[in-house]
């Protein structure tokens, strides 16, 4: 199983690949990730270093053997995910890993201890993509990840909707009535509220669903179960005591795919764009902001407001108000003039505006 990346494994002192900086990065990876991984990274990093030297005048034999970049180098492997390393929060068997595999079927998944580490793994070129759960049809928004989107500089390059079917897992000789405690990710516990209330068990939140399964198995617990996937049951050799224990059979989590660079938005298929903005305080300000979309017939699919962490309170004529950031998804590509005009219009009065990404909509639910 892959080693989980943790905070200390990511050094912010290493920067995007250049022939000079890659040795520094390799050192970081060598100490933390499995040897096999390191070799793959070495190959990848040396390939990138090679590319960055294309065209440089040099007479040594290494330079003479270099071939020019082709379109396939730029796009080929990213199509089916082979050669891509995708960072996710959790351990093997987490739903985020399944989301990564749905988006990039042949990718190499990189488990990370926290969401923040997954972002840093991409920023520091340890991974090529990060996958991030952002909202669930039963549990709602994953607020922390909205905050992380703004704190980091990654771009949204895709979305994946995954049907999440939770199981109640326990060690092999444990019966459902033996359970006094159930471990899982807080979102998963919230999604199984009814079942867990009926069982009268104590709920304990842990970092991810598969991590809960791993803990129960490793410690051979007899009075504790885990809410996790059927895949996690297989990986950690646990018994499935109950299947589909989520409160509603339609339990869908939406994940975002993040990369260092944005993709070029297209108009060949349905696209979605995610933005974040802030406004001055005053009557009708949000109404005015949303009107830039409605007057152009652009459909909004999601709206989320989060307090501005650095200045939560604004002073308005002696009255203090919370100052908000508005996250908004709309159904249009940034290649579309209509969308460009809407944002130009919004920018005229928004106090802050950032496009988080323009990416193909996921229309296949798995
Ligand atoms: O713990 C996991 O398996 C995750 O991938 C995280 C997560 C989440 O954060 O929402 C993903 C999907 C489910 O909604 C439950 C948990």
TrEMBL record:
Compositionally biased residues, Low complexity: 9-23
Keyword tags: Amino-acid biosynthesis, Aromatic amino acid biosynthesis, Chloroplast, Lyase, Phenylalanine biosynthesis, Plastid, Transit peptide
Pathway: Amino-acid biosynthesis; L-phenylalanine biosynthesis; L-phenylalanine from L-arogenate: step 1/1
Enzyme Commission number(s) from the entry: 4.2.1.91
Prephenate dehydratase domain sequence ranges: 85-260
InterPro entries with a match to the protein in the record: ACT-like_dom_sf, ACT_dom, Preph_deHydtase, Preph_deHydtase_CS
Protein name as it appears in the record: Arogenate dehydratase
Originating organism: Lactuca virosa
């Amino acid at each position: 199983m892959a080693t989980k990346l943790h905070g200390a494994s990511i050094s912010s002192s290493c920067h995007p690949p250049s022939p000079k900086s890659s040795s520094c990065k390799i050192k970081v990876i060598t100490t933390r990730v499995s040897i096999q991984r390191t070799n793959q990274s070495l190959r990848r990093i040396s390939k990138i270093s090679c590319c960055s030297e294309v065209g440089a005048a040099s007479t040594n034999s290494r330079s003479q053997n270099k071939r020019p970049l082709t379109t396939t180098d730029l796009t080929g492997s990213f199509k089916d995910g082979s050669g891509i390393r995708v960072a996710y929060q959790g351990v093997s068997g987490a739903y985020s890993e399944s989301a990564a595999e749905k988006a990039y079927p042949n990718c190499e998944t990189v488990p990370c201890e926290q969401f923040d580490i997954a972002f840093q793994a991409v920023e520091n070129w340890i991974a090529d993509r990060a996958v991030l759960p952002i909202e669930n049809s039963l549990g709602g928004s994953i607020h922390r990840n909205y905050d992380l989107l703004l704190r980091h500089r990654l771009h949204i390059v895709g979305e994946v909707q995954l049907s999440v079917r939770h199981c109640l897992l326990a060690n092999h000789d444990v019966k459902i009535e033996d359970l006094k405690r159930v471990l899982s990710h807080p979102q998963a516990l919230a999604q199984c509220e009814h079942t867990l209330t009926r069982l009268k068990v104590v709920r304990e939140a842990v970092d991810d669903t598969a991590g809960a399964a791993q803990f129960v198995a490793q410690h051979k617990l007899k009075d504790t179960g885990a809410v996790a996937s059927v895949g996690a049951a297989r990986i950690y050799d646990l018994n499935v005591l109950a299947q589909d224990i989520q409160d509603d059979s339609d339990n869908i989590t939406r994940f975002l795919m993040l990369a260092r660079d944005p993709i070029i938005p297209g108009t060949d298929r349905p696209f979605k764009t995610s933005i974040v903005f802030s406004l001055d305080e005053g009557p009708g300000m949000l109404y005015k902001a949303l009107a830039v979309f409605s007057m152009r017939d652009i459909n909004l699919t999601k709206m989320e407001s989060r307090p501005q962490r650095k200045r939560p309170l604004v002073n308005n004529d002696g009255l203090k108000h919370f100052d908000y950031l508005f996250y908004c998804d709309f159904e249009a590509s940034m290649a579309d003039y209509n969308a460009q005009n809407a944002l130009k219009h919004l920018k005229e009065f928004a106090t802050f505006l950032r496009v988080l990404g323009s990416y193909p909509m996921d229309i296949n639910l798995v």
